[in-house]
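Colleagues,

Please find the record for the two-part complex below.
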Amino acid sequence: MTFRKYLVVAGVTVFAAAGDSMLSHGMKQAGNISLHHLSSLFLALLNPWVAVGILLLLAFFAAYMNALSWADLTYVLPATSLGYVLLALVAKFALHEQISPMRWLGIALISGGVGFVAGGEALTSHAHHEHAPRSVEAEPIAIPSGAES
Amino acid sequence: MKHLHTWGAIFVIVFASVVGDVLLTRAMKQVGDVHALLRRSGLWTVAGRVLSNQNFVLGVAAMAVAFFSLLFALSWGDVSLVAPAAASLTFIGNAFAARIFLHERVDRRRWIAASLVAAGVALLAG
């Protein structure tokens, strides 16, 4: 893992957390959306919180795609969950909210899980060749490819 | 009845996000390491190659389905059930799907990680 790759993973985490929280804040302002009034779903996009949240989620998406180009899905995904930990810590230290013991346990579990994955290799899947047709995919070969970890 | 709707929505969200994640991962593996590509051929070439990948387009479509079902479900469903259940089941679903469809070596280390994260997310988002 190079420094640049760590930055990409950090981007995945931060953009996902910030985008999600802005989106949920905006959707609470926008109010209920029912099956019969689907148009209100599109009106919700006009809410500034929702709009900025979507922009941040686009940034998240770019970082996520970047990470998936050189790492396994099961390697990148736990990193996105660190965002939940980030949000809880922001709530505690910036917004001075109380965090229940259950939530501290959740934070510990996620951090532990991420630590487990981060200790292993980033890429284990057999590299798909660019022009290889999908039908001739090789069997799963458990060769640690030359990913620097 | 409302309960059934909520679990139906959770299933749709989880299914769509797992399908989307698998397709997007496959697409990006076909495109190749973006860092190396950027150095060699520049941003527009890389963007063009990503956007014209069929798996990428299908993956984005699946993600859009997941995204709008989540927005939709969050606005009327039981938020304290929908958000953590969908997020945590997606982790488990993705671990299975990555092993079966992406041939990732999901060893014990990764299984433990996926379970810990899924449990943690369920606790935190609840």
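The mean pLDDT of chain B is 89.

Comments are welcome before we finalize the supplementary table.
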